[in-house]
Each structure stands twice: as structure tokens, then as C-alpha cells.
Amino acid sequence: MSTMPLSPSEWVQLNLQQQGLNRPKRGKAATLEMISQLGYVQIDSINVVERAHHHVLQSRIANYQPQWLDELMAERKVFEYWSHAAAYLPMADFRFSLFRKHQLQQGKKHWFAPDHQVMQQVRARITAEGPLKAGDFTATTEKNGAWWDWQPAKKALEQLFMQGELMVLRREKFQKVFDLTERVLPAGLDLRVPSVEEFVSYLINGYLKSHGCGSAAQISYLRSGLKADVQQQLLARQAGGELGSFMQQGQRYFYSQQLPTLMPTSNQVRLLNPFDNLVIQRQRLQHWFDFDYQIEVYVPAEKRKIGYYSLPILYRQQLIGQMDVKAVRAQKILLVQHLVLSESTRITTSLRRALTQALDDYAAFNGCEQWQLVKAKPALVKWLSDTE
User: Fold this and answer.
1) E strands, 225-278, in order
2) Which of 62, 64, 138 is nearest to 53 (CA)?
3) Are 90 and 307 in contact (CB under 8 A)?
4) Which residue from 235, 240, 272 is spatially nearest to 254, judged by alpha carbons?
5) ∠ CA 179-52-9, rounded to 5°
6) CATH of the domain at 348
7) CA distance 66 to 58
8) What is the domain extent for residue 368?
9) For labelling alongside 38, which of 68, 118, 166, 204 has CA 20 to 30 A away?
10) pTM score, whole prediction
11) Overall domain count for the chain
12) In this structure, are residues 24 and 50 in contact, taking their beta carbons and an 8 Å threshold?
């Protein structure tokens, strides 16, 4: 095992740098570069504020415009599929989506057992009529239950999508519009199904690129049955001199021997989405940032400590607190329904300026003309309202 080449604070600095959170970039081209750097941007439907995939990019692209993501889809530079969850992925990585698709084609179950008869009917309609969404199919008389109790046609669409026979062409009011894969894919892509070794290599390379270092468990996060293969390849690549490793808090972390040069950390505040790439693995967040975070969307209202949709607050190299937010779009007001900063946070003038600027920017991003603090400790209310 090699010695630790960076201090813990330098690893945090590198993580933020590789996540695109130390210095904002600008423009549509930088948006595609950021998706490639991150490896994926998770899609989520919650819309009390701007949806997760747009917020993740706005946190890293100073002048981000949501239509850029639609344009990149239309230009076939990104595509929708499954990472550890539903996500936008760079089209350059399309080949590696075939690993999961091939498993499903071979009988591995996704959410439900496929109904091949309905799938054949759905496929035939799209072949003949062109792109369709779930709402274009006649509903049955059966009463819907929970979100996963979908109508047969919707289930068939999702199964065909997950198996790779259909792709998402675009979204209309957030509904997926599907078309045959061969009518969506750009020409010239490598369409060979990756071997397990190739897919594991892709996971390792992508994770180290976007985080700087990672453990076998983190690299194989929500990738069923691959942890042992990831661990084996990590050790083999370390033995070959390509990777190094170190122990930290009882875990072995691996990193590339060719580490990027460290860049200065930003003094800006970043309001991070609950599904942000930096935040999504809670154990890693606790380990490196000493930050205990839980999204409370799924917590009963009376048991929430922060609020329904709380954003972690990043300042310099620390996660200093959370705020629960909601956009009241009709009134163009962003409500900061609850602001909480950690006890160790020094509430300085420079932090106040950075935080208010982040709130101004986030309000504008949500189509709001102002933001309003609803709840915080009295000392925080006074500090944040200070105009000196």
C-alpha cells in the first residue's frame, strides 16, 4: 500500500475540483464538458424548485440555461439512461449502457416482469407512427395505485427503454417521448457490449476522474453484484503501478498515480441539490466532510428537522449547513423556509455576502425576483439582514 500523497483537506480540495465546484465555468459547451466530467447527472421529478438535473449543472455553470440540456439531447450529445439512477449521460459513453441493457435482455429483472405481448404492441405502434409517450396509449379501466403500479403500456415502454430497444428522444412537460433506438442514435458509435472487465474499468476510471479517489464500495455504489470485481481490478491495477491506495477511517481508498494539479478553492457559496453528485453517497459525505445529511422528502412532516427539500450549503471546503427551499412561482418569491448553519460556522461578513449572492443567483435561476427568509435562529436572521 502506498503512502497518502495528499492530506485529508487536500483530498477534499481535489474532490471539489474534480466535481467542478471550485471555479464556475460558462456556456453550453462547458455544460457538455461538465456532464462528461461528472459522468452522469441524476434526473429527479420533484419540482418545488427547479428540478435536480438543472440545479446540479447550475451549481457548476455560472450562466447555465435549462434549454441547453434539451438542445444537447436534440444534438445527440447526451442521452437518458440508468446510472445508479435515472440520469443524463454523455453520448460518448453510450457503449457502457449496453452492459445493463444486455443483462435485461437476457432475463435479469428490472422493476417488474416484462409483458412481451404488450411490449410487441407498443413497439409496433412506435415503429409505424413514430415517437410516442405513455399518454399516447389508451389507458385501461384498472385503477392506478402507487407510482410503480403503471398502466401496461407505460410498463412496456419502460421495459423496452431499459432493454435498449427504445430511447428517450426528448421530454414534453417532463414526460418521456420514446422512439426506436436506431432512429435516435448518431452514426459511428461503438455498439459492442462491454465485458465485465471493461465495464468495471469504466466505473473505476469515471469515479476517480470525478472524485479524485474512491473505495470499492463507493465505485460500485448501487451496481448489483459488481463490488468484488471492482475490488479485484483495483488491486490488480495497484499491483501494476497504475493506482495507489491509502487507508482513511478504516477504508481503503484508491487513486490514480497521475493526480491533477490542485487548484485554489472558490470563496463562493454553492447551494447543492439533494441529488448532487457530491452529496448522493451519504457515507462518503460523512467521511470526508463530517456532514450528516438526509433528504426529508420521504420523512413525515412532523419528524422533519430541516424541511421537505433541504439544500446542503458549501462554503470554501466545508458543508456549513442546510436550507429548506420552495419557489412560489406565481409570486416570484423563493422561500427559504428554514436556514440552519452548523455550530462551528463562523458567521462573518464575507460569508454573509457570499450566501446572499448565492441566494440571489438561485432565486433568479428559479424565475424568482426575490427571496424571503421564513425561519432561522434570531441571531442568523439579524446577521443575514445586516446591510453593513
Assistant:
1) 243-248, 251-256, 269-271
2) 64
3) no
4) 235
5) 130
6) 3.40.630
7) 9
8) 308-388
9) 166
10) 0.94
11) 2
12) no
Largest CA distance in the chain: 69
Domain boundary pick from 126, 153, 184? 184
- Identity (one letter) of the amino acid at 186? P
SS3 for 333?
Answer: strand
Cα–Cα nearest to 275, from 51, 12, 31: 51
Which residues are paired to 179 by β-bridges? 167
Q: What is the pLDDT of residues 18-29, one digit of tens each?
A: 999 998 899 999
Whether 388 is in a domain gets the answer yes
Closest CA to 314 of 295, 291, 297: 291
Asked whether the beta carbons of 321 and 313 are under 8 A apart, the reply is: yes
Q: How far apart are the first and last CA of the chain?
A: 53
In a domain, 294, yes or no: no
d(CA 43, CA 117): 30
Supply 185's cell numbers.
Answer: 442514435
Q: What's phi and psi for 197, nearest 5 deg?
A: -60, -45
**Chain centroid to CA 32: how far?**
14
Beta bridge partners of 314: 270, 319
SS (H, E, C) 63-90: CCCCHHHHHHHHCCCEEEEECCCEEEEE
pLDDT in tens, 320-345: 999 999 999 999 999 999 999 999 99
- Spatial distance between the Cα atoms of 253 and 233, rounded to a whole number of angstroms: 13
Instruction: Classify residue 353 by its DSSP letter.
Output: H
What is the β-pairing status of strands 370-373 and 333-341? parallel
CA–CA dist 201, 81 (Å, integer):
19
Are 178 and 132 a contacting pair, CB within 8 Å? yes
The answer to the question of residue 295 being in a domain is no
For residue 268, what is its C-alpha cell?
463562493
Quick check: helix, strand or coil at residue 267? coil
Bigger pLDDT: 107 or 75? 75
Q: Write the DSSP symbol of residue 217.
A: H
Rounded percentage of the chain residues whose pLDDT exceeds 90:
90
